[in-house]
Each structure stands twice: as C-alpha cells, then as structure tokens.
Amino acid sequence: MSRVARRALVTVLFSLAGISALAQARVIYSATADAHADIAQATSTAAKAHKRIILDFGGNWCGDCQVLDIYFHQPPNLALLEDNFVLVHVDIGHMDKNTDVAAKYDIPLKRGVPALAVLDEHGHLLYSQKSGEFEAMRKMDPESVTEFLNRWKPRR
After folding, report:
1. 152 near 126, Cβ under 8 Å?
2. Which residues contact 32 (CB under 8 A, 6 or more apart)?
3. What's the pLDDT tens digit per position in 20-71?
4. Which of 72, 86, 90, 140 is the most exposed place for a label (fewest CB within 10 A)?
5. Which three-class secondary structure state does DSSP give residue 118?
C-alpha cells in the first residue's frame, strides 16, 4: 500500500472513530418516553405547522442509530428536518419495547434499526422502511439522509 493510500486510510479510520466516540456518548431514545403520547403530540404539532412526522425507531446501543442522528443534525439536513418534519424518537429497547408501535407503522424490527416511518400531518402512514435501508448508516454518507428528507418533505 502506498504512503498516500495508508495516510488516507488512517484519516478515514480516525474520522470513523471520532463519530463512534461521539455517538456512544449521546442519549437519543428516552427509556421513559411514552411513544403513543409523543406521536399524538407530534401529530397535533404537525397539523398546525403543516409538516410531516418522522418516527425514528432505534436504541441508544445502536451505532447506526447514533450516526443517523448525527447526520440529522448536520447541514443541510437540520434545516430540512426543522422546516418540514416533526421528529419522534421511538425507543425499541433491545427489540422488546414499543413493538406494538412498530407493528402499527409497518416497521419490521427484525430487519434492523434505525428504521423510519413517515406520516402525513394527520398521522397517516406514507412510508415505512421495510428492508432496513438505514441499518448500515455507518457506511452511508449524510447525503443519503438529505435525499430521504427531500423525497418525503411535504409539497408546498
């Protein structure tokens, strides 16, 4: 391996390690939250603001879930998210919590997390990830999230 290639590899590995270290320190999914109440509140907020709702199913132990949340908070994704969506984090525990909520929104938890569902401003399901599209988020780039948000934002 050439010196330049080794340096590039080391840079990438340190970058990933930095994301991983940052991700491990963050609590995204509240163990005490009431997903049903949070979704009801999000529906009320979305209806008033004419926004869509994103249900983010995952767990704090999930590195890919952590990376997705980091990507959500980077430009231009943060502006897209804030302008067009109400985000609800749904804690799935260790695949044993809020399983009724996942089933209601056609989220097959066995396919992996993070898994997203998009609801219209009235709480009707528009889209659910059926094939674990974001379960390898660590191998994806922030632009994949930008693409997703642009695809599902409301048409104005």
Report:
1. yes
2. none
3. 554 455 899 999 999 999 999 999 999 999 999 999 999 999 999 999 999 9
4. 140
5. strand
Residue corresponding to tokens 């991700």: 23
Taking CB atoms within 8 Å and a gap of at least 24, the contacts of 6-10 are none
Question: Is the CB of residue 114 less than 8 Å from the CB of residue 62?
Answer: yes
98 — phi, psi (to 5°)? Answer: 55, 30
Residue 65 to residue 87: CA distance in whole angstroms: 14
CA 155 centroid distance within chain? 21
Residue among 138, 150, 149, 151 at smallest CA distance from 70: 138
Yes or no: domain 27-152 corresponds to CATH 3.40.50.2000: no
Query: How deeply is 107 buried, as exposed, middle or buried, from its count of CB atoms within 10 A (0-12, 13-18, 19+)?
Result: buried
Backbone angles phi, psi at 81, to 5 degrees: -65, -50
Residue extents of the structural domains in the chain: 27-152
